[in-house]
TrEMBL record:
<comment type="pathway">
    <text>Amino-acid degradation; L-tryptophan degradation via kynurenine pathway; L-kynurenine from L-tryptophan: step 1/2.</text>
</comment>
<keyword id="KW-0408">Iron</keyword>
<comment type="function">
    <text>Heme-dependent dioxygenase that catalyzes the oxidative cleavage of the L-tryptophan (L-Trp) pyrrole ring and converts L-tryptophan to N-formyl-L-kynurenine. Catalyzes the oxidative cleavage of the indole moiety.</text>
</comment>
<dbReference type="GO" id="GO:0046872">
    <property type="term" value="F:metal ion binding"/>
</dbReference>
<feature type="region of interest" description="Disordered">
    <location>
        <begin position="370"/>
        <end position="439"/>
    </location>
</feature>
<comment type="subunit">
    <text>Homotetramer. Dimer of dimers.</text>
</comment>
<keyword id="KW-0223">Dioxygenase</keyword>
<dbReference type="GO" id="GO:0019442">
    <property type="term" value="P:L-tryptophan catabolic process to acetyl-CoA"/>
</dbReference>
<dbReference type="GO" id="GO:0004833">
    <property type="term" value="F:L-tryptophan 2,3-dioxygenase activity"/>
</dbReference>
<dbReference type="GO" id="GO:0020037">
    <property type="term" value="F:heme binding"/>
</dbReference>
<keyword id="KW-0349">Heme</keyword>
<dbReference type="Pfam" id="PF03301">
    <property type="entry name" value="Trp_dioxygenase"/>
</dbReference>
<comment type="similarity">
    <text>Belongs to the tryptophan 2,3-dioxygenase family.</text>
</comment>
<feature type="compositionally biased region" description="Basic and acidic residues">
    <location>
        <begin position="413"/>
        <end position="439"/>
    </location>
</feature>
<keyword id="KW-0823">Tryptophan catabolism</keyword>
<keyword id="KW-0560">Oxidoreductase</keyword>
<dbReference type="InterPro" id="IPR037217">
    <property type="entry name" value="Trp/Indoleamine_2_3_dOase-like"/>
</dbReference>
Length: 439
């Protein structure tokens, strides 16, 4: 705040009104560089709707830039040695932002579709050889999420990088995005460190296999006991198909073969972690990881919707037979990008294939319940903004699993854990006191 007496000393009236321009500093127009942004819509024809076409696509590119910015920051957080609750909250917030931006991008087609095919024909021929296929930011976004080159549909029998051959800076950025760990790769590494997968501890995978074998045995017996022949055949076919699916995740060689074929993305242990989070998502420490897995599926779903809207708009504007302005097969090429091969987090969608009824889910033992409980009160250093764990952690890359359990307390310097009966009695006493207070 400026001093009014200083103005009086300078010969100015301290009571005089000051306009916004009197204050020093950067103004709105210069801060946003609006002269450059608003002056970049250079139409090459006199067609009225060309201006809309340019503005919509420039808006897409700005949103692509923001999503890349968010994805890069999330990748950086996942690449750190520790990913605790505080960082997970930030990761979730940024991925939620990406999801909202993608929803906006999907809806943006509605504005573009106010342009009719005849309106588009007025300037379409002047666009060649420009094409949306040449959006290098969208390629960067795909690569940073985790889309593999071998999963892409060939562009005129060439690699997608062919169209950027005359721009070494773009080619270098794309090459770097392919070589750096993608979000999918970092997610897989993070899931591998899920607490409870250790063979010497809770050993979720062994317990899960026992539960699957038990459930499948029950299905087999039900099928064999069925008297109606056609129903028996149907039930037995279902049992065998489901058994094949379960065998594909319990046999590491089969799983790795599916990864090599591009049908799965997560490592074998990463898949185990994702399944464990899905089963025990209601436990405090798995709540945030489960939110993240859902957000990643949202990203895949919304990108697929964006591709679909693009396909439908192209078909509406130029039909199914004309070539694209960049020389691709237009509608036919775009439609081929809607397959599952373009889904980066396809394994997360398929987790439901391997879920079991709640009554068949292996129960958590007391130690795992303690590890997955919420963290107790932060110490003084944590309150000052430093992330300090009061106990050593055995999973440095995942959310804290060995932080103090709220049920633990100290009595005469020795650790004392309340028994289940003590907890039940305490709960009953609490309920009784509440009832008395309300009477």
């Amino acid at each position: 705040m400026s001093c009014p007496y200083a103005r009086e000393l300078n010969g100015e009236d301290p009571n005089a009104e000051r306009c916004l321009g009197d204050f020093k500093g950067i103004n709105y127009t210069n801060y946003l560089q609006l002269h450059g942004i608003l002056g970049s819509q250079n139409c090459i024809t006199s067609a009225h709707d060309e201006h809309l076409f340019i503005v919509v696509h420039q808006a897409y590119e700005l949103w692509f830039k923001q999503m890349i910015y968010e994805i890069d920051s999330v990748r950086a957080l996942f690449n750190e040695e520790e990913v605790n609750e505080h960082k997970m909250l930030e990761i979730i917030k940024r991925m939620q932002r990406v999801v909202l931006i993608l929803k906006l991008c999907v809806d943006q087609f509605v504005i573009l579709e106010t342009m009719t095919p005849l309106d588009f024909m007025e300037f379409r021929d002047y666009l060649s050889p420009a094409s949306g296929f040449q959006s290098f930011q969208f390629r960067l976004l795909e690569n940073k999420l985790g889309l593999k080159s071998e999963s892409r549909v060939r562009y005129k029998q060439e690699t997608y990088k062919k169209v950027f051959g005359d721009d070494p800076e773009i080619l270098e950025a794309i090459k770097q995005s392919e070589e750096e760990p993608s979000l999918q790769v970092l997610l897989s590494r993070w899931l591998e460190r899920t607490p409870g997968l250790e063979e010497e501890g809770f050993n979720f995978w062994l317990k899960y296999k026992i539960a699957v074998d038990t459930t499948q045995e029950e299905k087999r017996r039900e099928a064999e006991a069925e008297k109606v022949e056609h129903m028996k055949t149907h039930m037995m076919a279902q049992y065998k198909r489901r058994q094949e699916l379960f065998d594909s995740i319990f046999d590491v060689k089969v799983h790795n073969a599916l990864v090599a074929r591009g049908e799965r993305r997560l490592s074998h242990r990463g898949l185990q972690g994702a399944l464990m989070i899905s089963f025990y998502r209601e436990n405090p420490r798995f709540n945030q990881p489960h939110q993240l897995l859902n957000l990643l599926m949202d990203v895949d779903s919304l990108i697929t919707k964006w591709r679909y809207n693009h396909v439908m708009m192209v078909q509406r504007m130029i039909g199914s037979q004309l070539l694209g302005t960049g020389g691709s097969s237009g509608y036919q090429y775009l439609r081929s990008t809607l397959s599952d091969r373009y889904k980066v987090f396809i394994d997360l969608f398929n987790l439901s294939t391997f879920l079991l009824p709640r009554n068949s889910v292996p129960p958590l033992d007391r130690q795992m319940k303690s590890r997955l409980s919420t963290m107790g009160e932060p110490d003084s250093e944590e309150r000052r903004g430093k992330v300090v764990w009061s106990r050593p952690r055995s999973e440095p890359g995942f959310v804290s699993s060995d932080s103090p359990c709220p049920m633990d307390n100290v009595d005469n310097g020795e650790e004392k854990v309340s028994s289940d009966s003590d907890l039940e009695k305490s709960l009953e006493d609490s309920i009784e006191r509440s009832c008395e207070a309300s009477m």
